[in-house]
Amino acid sequence: MKKLYSRPEKRGLFWFRHDLRLHDNPALVALSEQVDELLCVFIIDPRWFKSSHFQSAHMGDKRWAFLQQSLSNLQDNLQHQGHQLFVLEGETFAVLDALIGSYTPNIVASGMHPGVYERQQWQRLMQKQPDVHFIQENAHSLFQPDTLPFEIEFLPASFTPFRKRVEDQSVALALPAPTALPPAPDLPWLSSKNMDLTKKATGLAFTGGEDAGLAQLEYTLFTSHNIKNYKQTRNGLDGWDYSSKLSPWLANGCLSVRQVLTELTRYESEYEKNDSTYWLYFELIWREYFQWHLFKYQSKLFQFSGTQDTRPLTTFIAPRFAMWCQGQTPYPIVNACMKQLNHTGYMSNRGRQLVASCLVNELGVDWRFGAAYFEQQLIDFDVASNWGNWQYLAGVGVDPRGHRRFDLAKQTQQYDPNGEFVRQWAGDTHVNGIDQTDAADWPFE
Question: Is the pTM of this model over 0.85?
Answer without folding.
Answer: yes
